[in-house]
Each structure stands twice: as C-alpha cells, then as structure tokens.
Write a structure and sequence with these properties.
The chain is an alpha+beta fold. About 65% of the residues lie in helices and about 10% in strands. The protein contains 25 helices and 10 strands. The radius of gyration is 31 Å and the shape is elongated.
C-alpha cells in the first residue's frame, strides 16, 4: 500500500532533523540582512500602469522635452511677518535657488518671476518649483532626497516657515511611515498574541512557538523580496502585507499544529511519533488551507501591475514559507521538546478553566440546529444589511491630505493648496506628436492645436491652458500663425524650437497643460481627464497622436487596468474554490455553500469599509482626522482575493471535522454537533488571533494599510462568528443528508483527500 506523502514527509523531517534545524537557522540569519535593508529597494506606491496612455506621455516628455520635468521638488515658504518684497524674504528665496542651481541633479528652478500665481494673495507665501533631471527611478529618488536634505540644513530666517514637498519627497515620507507602522503593529500584536496563546495552551513554551514561526516567516519573506527587488520593481506596501499576513497565517497554522501535537502526546505517543502524526493530520489541513490562501494571492498577479504584483508576491511567499516552517521546522522542535512543550506547568493550572470549552460548543450547536431557520435568516439578514452599503461604494486614489499632519511633505502640500487652489502643480497634460514628422510650428499644426485647446479651455472644469497657444489670451489663431511663421520672430521672443519649454527638442511634439479649477483632491479630476479623452476621440486629429496624461490620468488608467481583470479573477477564484472544496468534501452542494458564504463575507466587509471610510462612521476611534469619502481603487480587488482565501481557511478546518464525524456516523445532525464541539474552540482562538493581528494594522497612518487591516479583521470576525457558528450549522441542518450528496458511482471513481486536524 502506497504511503501517505505527508507521513513520508514527517518521517524524513524527523530523520534529518539536525540538518533541517540548521538549515532554517542559517537561512533566517542570511535573510535578516535583506529584511533589514528591504526599504532600500521598495519603490513607492506603484500605482502607475506601464503601457498606459499616462505612462506613454510621461515617457515622451522624459525623452523629448529637455525643459519639462516629470519629477520635481517643491519648496513652500510662508511668513507672518514678511512680504515677498522684504529683503529677508528675497534673501531666503535666493539662498534656496543658489543651492538648487548648483546641484548637478537640478534641471531648472522656477519662482514667482516665472509665474505670478506662485504667490499668495497677501504676498506672504510662495513656492519654488525645482525640476529634477530625468534619470533612473532609483537615481532620481536619491537625488531628490539628497537635495531636500541640503535645503533642510540651510540656516534660513526663523520668521519664514519652509516645507519641502513634491512627488519624490511624498513617496519617501510614505515609505518611512509605512516602515514605522509595520514595526509599531508588530510591537502591539506580539505581546497580546503571546498572552492569548498562553490562555489557549496553558503553557508559555507552546505559546512562544507560533510567535517564533510567524516572525521567522516574515524575516525570510522580506529577505527573499529584497533579492527579488533587485530585478523587478516592488511597492512599499510589500512590508506591511508581509507583516500582516505573516503574523496572521503564521500564528494561525502553528496554533493548529501545536494543538495537535499536544493531543498526540496525550495519547501516549513518543515525541517523534507525535510529531509525525501531527504532520500527517494538521500538516495536511494546513497545507490545503495555505493553498487556498495562495490561490487568492496568486490571482493578484494577473493584472501585472506593480502594486498588485507586489502584494501578490508578498502574500504567496509569506504563506508558503509559513507552511514550510510549520511542516518541517515545527515537527523538529516538537521532537526535541517532547513533553516540555507544556512547560511551565504553573500556566497550565492557571488557565485550566478556560482551556476546554467543548461543552459550550456542543450546547451551542444543538441550539442553532433547533432554531435553524431563525439563525439562518437572522445571520443572513445582518450580513445583507451591512452589504447594502457596498452598493454605494466610491473609488479614488490616495491623497497627500490623508497623510499624517506632522509630515513635512504634507504641510508643504497644504501650503501649496493655500497659495494655488487650482493645483497646477498636478495639471492635466495634452501632448501632440506629429504623425508625418513635420514641425509643430507649421500653420496646419498650429491650427489643430489651437482648435483642440479651445475645446478644452471651454470645459467648466478647466481654468486655464498653458502651452504653445492659450485660447483665452488676447491672441487669435491668425496672430499665433504669424508669430510662429517667422523664425526670426521666434528668436526675438525666445521661442525657438530649442528653447521653448512646451516644444520637444526635435520640434515635432508639443505639450499643453490644462489647469483644473477644482480645489478638492477627489475624483473630480478623473472626470475632467475622461472628458478630455472623449473630446480627443471626437476630434479625430489627422496629423497628431494626441495623448492625455498628468493630473488624474494615472488614477484613471490604474483603475481601468485593475478592474479590466476583476471579472476574470473572480471567476478563477470561484472555480478554484469549488475544485478544492469538492476534492476535500466529496459533495456537490457544500462547495457552492462555501462560495456563497465567502461572497457574503466579502460584501459585508466592503459595506463596513464604506460606512467607515466613505461616511465617516467610527473614524475617530481609528484616529482618522480627514474622512476620505471613498475607498482606494485597489482595496476591493485585494480584499476579495485575500478574504476568499482566509474564509476557505476556516471552512477547511471546520468542514473537515464535520465530514470526519459524518463518515463515522452517517448522521448529519450529530456530525455538525460533534464537529463544532471538536473544532469550535480552536477555530475561535485562531480567528481571534487573526482579528487582533489585522486590527492592529487598522490604526496605521497609511490609508491603504488601514483599509486592508480593517477589511480583513472585519471579514475574519464575520466569518468566524456569524457565518461559521450561525449560518453554516443552520444550512447543514436544513440540508441534512442532501448536503453530502454525490452522484452514484462518483465516490469510487474520485480520489478524495482525507483531512484531519
């Protein structure tokens, strides 16, 4: 008879336990080097889409426009005492300009002499726009940080408040905040997790093992990501998702493994035998559970976006490493510890009262099945009510306004908003590239540019158009044609092809910048981008390739890229869920039930997030000072993938116990009661730990981490309470033997997986 692969694994692990223990210790030490340096290779939020219209326009500007700067630093200045005409103010501006102009990384420095809208109405505030030369992403980031540090160290007049902001500085600050957040969350979680595990196990040694495995899985994952990050771009959020998932599943899986090992020891087995049996039973369940979670994380690789790819890689790696540690290192430690895993005994006596609530679960299951319709209708009604709010979901991308108020880049941004509410530091770009290679100065080309610029400037959302032409100026189309027809005139006005900042170096492309009148930072900007793109399509230029970028175009393209694949991702995850659950349970109906319950869990989580982040419900408890008014673009997709996997986690552990009892007795009602009695306590403990882990991240200062933390903690809480202990037992009771129905002859033909934990 062929041996179970998990039994073979367990035996080999014990046989080579010294080698395996040494391997994991060495690997963890090596990985820790990369883990401590992970922030050096992470590249911001990763919300741009390679190949999109906005990305192509940025590439065009970078390569062909030597006087347009896609990356910049903004220095804001504000004084209560001085006006711009004061010698002190002028000296401060000149000091900053001098240090910037002497820097090799700077292409140009613009102040209020370039544009008087750089000045506030009371003439006490202004800003300098410092354009950075376009190098590689890494080099530009280093240049921005180096220059901002030199400016920060300047001894400026104490009566003039200065702040440094700009895209590169904002990304840097968000990276630093995310790093601190992960460290804070881990410090909050670990003591609580240890305390809870002591209560569950009644032993300090047993409690520390899951924590050790969880921390090791995080360190090894971050070290691996550090290596991967040398070859592909990874977003800052990698670190947070690794910590979140590593602590969640790492503690979860080890909880089941430790619990089973102690159970096997109580049967009188030797430590080595107990360790092998733990791998055969709980190890198998943990593997399938991890597979379910990994499928959800793998689905995030489908869009091939930097942010989703980063989250997907992080999730897959940390889950896989947590499983490998649980299947190999834990059994080795079990075999060495033996009965010492229950040490110290004092803890066991202290918490003995709370360690065996099996009678409660038996009574509860019988109560639920006695009033099955009441619990089913009540539970579903609660979830549908919360899910209703998901129908009103709005999406957007994060804003600097939601960053912590103490950040210099955020304060600089707010000062910018006071000076220039039109937000022209992030205008909408309209690029024109001639198809026939002719100069943009030719009369036919100027005519087309002017006509399209006129259409844009007539939009109510647009206040002004900057570029080769300005339809709202006193100059007519004929005047522009006359101006650009004479090269001598161009030189007189310093508008020669080589010097005009709005014209490419080869004279075959030009860029217009449309300034948005809306002072908010929400999706109004997106609508303007979409309107201009529709105008472009209707305009149907014969000689120009017109691209719309800048402003909110990156967000529009990102949303389109994310949700282009969402239906496919949903379909693949549902199909994978059905296949896994069918192979485990041998039932036609139960996988459908699992999918419906998972969908309820997801939609209820969406609804709760809408209540909190869109309508402001309980935001004060989370320390949110500015209500976002919408969810981040990426949140629904990521939550769907992760929640489906985590929900399968508990479905597998619970239903495998119920199936085990049903196979023994053939009585569906008794199977539910006994299955819940045996698994209810451990599943609730595991869920509670996961809720604590995810909840800690709900208090992050990074909005994406907050939404993930709250969404996942809500889903796990719903899944482990309303769904697992109310709705599922009710459905199983009402379905009876039909729940386990399989067409005649299928059972003999199919090789079903037998799970125990």
């Amino acid at each position: 008879m062929k041996k179970d692969i998990f039994r073979v694994l367990g035996e080999k692990v014990i046989q080579y336990r010294v080698i395996i223990l040494s391997f994991w210790i060495i690997l963890t030490l090596i990985a820790s080097i990369g883990a401590f340096n992970i922030d050096k290779i992470l590249k911001g939020e990763g919300s741009y889409v390679k190949g999109s219209e906005s990305y192509e326009q940025t590439e065009l500007i970078s390569k062909k426009f030597s006087q347009q700067y896609t990356k910049n630093i903004i220095v804001t200045l504000k004084s209560k005492k001085y006006t711009l005409s004061s010698p002190e103010y002028i000296n401060t501006i000149n000091t900053i300009k001098n240090i910037a102009q002497k820097s090799k990384e700077v292409g140009a420095v613009y102040d209020y002499n370039f544009d008087n809208s750089f000045i506030s109405k009371d003439r006490k505030s202004t800003f300098l726009l410092i354009g950075l030369k376009d190098n590689s992403a890494d080099q530009t980031s280093e240049d921005a940080n180096a220059l901002s540090e030199r400016i920060r160290l300047l001894k400026l007049d104490p009566e003039i408040e200065s702040h440094i902001t700009g895209s590169q500085i904002i990304v840097r600050d968000m990276t630093q905040v995310s790093e601190k957040d992960s460290a804070k969350a881990e410090k909050r979680i670990l003591p609580i997790a240890i305390l809870l595990l002591i209560i569950v196990f009644g032993a300090l040694v047993s409690a520390l093992l899951p924590v050790m495995i969880a921390v090791m899985s995080i360190v090894i994952t971050l070290g691996t990501l550090y290596v991967i990050g040398q070859y592909i771009e990874l977003a800052t959020f990698c670190k947070a998702i690794t910590s979140m998932m590593g602590l969640g599943v790492g503690l979860d899986y080890c909880l089941f493994m430790v619990s089973r090992f102690r159970e096997e020891l109580d049967k009188g087995l030797t430590p080595e035998q107990a360790a092998i049996e733990t791998v055969v039973t709980s190890g198998k369940a943990v593997s399938y559970s991890g597979l379910a979670v990994s499928i959800g994380m793998a689905a995030l690789l489908i869009p091939n976006l930097i942010l989703t790819r980063s989250i997907g890689f992080s999730g897959i790696l940390v889950v896989a490493i947590a499983i490998l540690l649980a299947l190999t290192l834990l059994p080795v430690i079990f075999s060495f510890l033996g009965d010492r895993i229950n040490s110290p005994r004092a803890f066991h006596r202290l918490v003995k009262y709370s360690s065996s609530p099996k009678e409660f679960w038996l009574r509860w299951s019988k109560t639920v099945m006695k009033y099955s319709w009441t619990f089913l209708i009540g539970g579903v009604s609660i979830l549908l009510f919360v899910s209703y709010f998901a129908l009103h979901m709005k999406l957007w991308n994060s804003s600097v306004v939601l960053m912590p108020e103490y950040l210099d880049s955020r304060q600089g941004f707010m000062n910018m908003m006071e000076i220039d509410p039109s937000r022209k530091f992030s205008p909408i770009g309209i690029s024109f590239e001639t198809k026939d290679g002719s100069s943009v100065y030719e009369q036919k080309n100027i005519k087309e540019i002017y006509k399209f610029a006129k259409k844009i400037s007539d939009l109510p959302e647009i206040t002004r158009v900057l570029g080769l032409v300005d339809p709202k100026s006193d100059m007519t189309l004929d005047a522009y044609n006359n101006l650009y027809a004479n090269t001598l005139t161009l030189q007189t006005f310093q508008l020669a092809e080589s010097s005009n900042p709005f014209v490419s170096n080869d004279g075959k492309s030009t860029i217009l910048w449309a300034l948005h009148k809306d002072t908010s930072v929400d999706i109004a900007d997106w609508y303007a981008v979409k309107k201009i793109r529709l105008l472009r399509n209707e305009f149907a230029s014969t000689n120009f390739k017109i691209m719309i970028g800048g402003g909110g175009s990156t967000n529009v393209d990102f949303q389109d890229a994310v949700y282009k694949y969402f239906p496919l991702i949903i379909a693949l995850i549902i199909i994978a869920t059905y296949i896994i659950m069918f192979s485990l349970l041998g039932s036609i109906l139960l996988p459908i039930k699992a999918i419906l319950m998972n969908l309820l869990s997801v939609t209820a989580s969406y609804g709760w997030l809408v209540l909190v982040f869109q309508y402001g419900f309980t935001t004060q408890l989370l320390g949110i000072k500015h209500i976002p008014g919408a969810l981040l673009i990426i949140t629904p997709l990521v939550l769907f993938c992760i929640i489906f996997g985590l929900s399968m986690d508990y479905e597998i552990f619970m239903m495998s116990r119920i199936k085990e009892e049903y196979d023994k007795t053939g009585d569906p009602e008794q199977a539910v009661a006994m299955g819940l009695e045996k698994s209810g306590s451990i599943i609730t403990s595991a869920a509670l730990i996961m809720v604590i882990v995810f909840s800690a991240f709900s208090f992050s200062e990074v909005i994406l981490v907050q939404e993930m933390g709250l969404g996942l903690s809500t889903a796990v809480l719903i899944d482990s309470t309303i769904i697992r202990i109310m709705i599922v037992p009710s459905i199983l009771k009402l379905l009876g033997k039909a729940a386990w129905w399989l067409p005649k002859g299928w059972k003999e033909k199919l090789s079903l997986v037998k799970l125990e934990h």
